[in-house]
Hints:
3 domains, Adenylosuccinate Synthetase, Chain A, domain 3, 20 strands, Adenylosuccinate Synthetase, Chain A, domain 1, Adenylosuccinate_synth_dom1, 20% strand, Adenylosuccinate Synthetase, subunit A, domain 2, ten-stranded mixed sheet
Amino acid sequence: MPNNVIVLGTQWGDEGKGKVADLLTTKANIVVRSQGGNNAGHTLVVGDKKVVVRLVPSGILHKECLCLIGSGVVVNPGALFEEIEELNRAGVESVESRIKISGAASLLLPIHPAIDKGAEKLRGKNAIGTTGRGIGPCYEDKVARRGVRVSDLYDMENFKVKLKALLDYRNFMLKNFYSEPEVSYESVLSYIESLRERILNMVADVSEIIAKGRREKQKILFEGAQGTFLDIDYGTYPYVTSSNTVAGGCVTGSGAGPLDIDYVLGIAKVYTTRVGGGPYPTELNDEVGEGIRKRGAEFGAVTGRPRRTGWYDAVAMRRAVTINSLTGLALMKMDVLDGMDEVKICTAYKMPDGSIRQLPPLSAHEYEGITPVYESMPGWKESTFGVTKWEDLPVNAQNYIRRLEELSGAKVAILSTGPERDQTIYLDDPFAD
């Protein structure tokens, strides 16, 4: 009986993890965020209101669910409390008391977005396409061991020394390298002091809470952010995020043990999207791609940026299945492909030298000159919107999904046919008893 389930993106983010996480959190006792920061958003529906959560785990909508923010997350305190206030206004109960933060999590400070934006501006046409929220610079400070952590707030004298050293270093870069205004020490210290007590009231030993939940047979959901091909190691580097978005990152970023995971559910759209720069072999810069963008409402939940759109990439998915040890797939937005004469699947990459690759490269420059090899299948004119039974899908839609399974190497567990919770086909329940 699976008790610990990972839900993560298997493409370039924005796959629809929010809906799946929300579906599964109805059964979960604990939901854990283990990487990323307030640069990724999940849209949740509260009654007739839509709320976008960025740092807060999706389980917050369920009043009996405990929400954990692990050591692998970079925490922007101001952004966190803005989310909490938005959830309070939406009528969600006991929000702040149900969120616990690891003391080992890094604090994202106002200096970090300033550095992020300065770096992107300096890159010019080679900009990575970050959200500008300071996630990368915060992780950079963490790895360089000059960052500040949530637990540093217990000793404010020591915190002030660390903060001064960090700002001296970062302001030197802002002024002399990026030609941007400095961020004052006094303003950052005042900002942190105003939130310090609230933050410390939320600190807990996240790893031990997970271990205790495991011993008590509680159902724990590990909620990934971004997607597999934005992983700092396995994504299209350097056009990636700054954390490990694969299943292993859910373990290291939360404090769970490697053998504690029972089921890994990968989320993917029945096509692909990407935001920002970087390689994207199946991208459609034509009316077909624009049609998918409009029908799928492909605009960022946090940034509002239009997403790049393309056909399903089975080559990339094979890598995602392997490095995440996927148990099953949740395929999203089936209805967006309704009404098309044909649908295509990328089955291989043709390299500039004419060779054929079944797996994607590991660096962005290796994608240069790649031509996707497509397999075409007949589309379907019937609507799949809101269908809840497999047998009610058009035959061509069924054939398409089965072909995606064959080419990707993973079985479909969940198929989404619309944005609402009940617009879902269950073929396998990750939390099944």
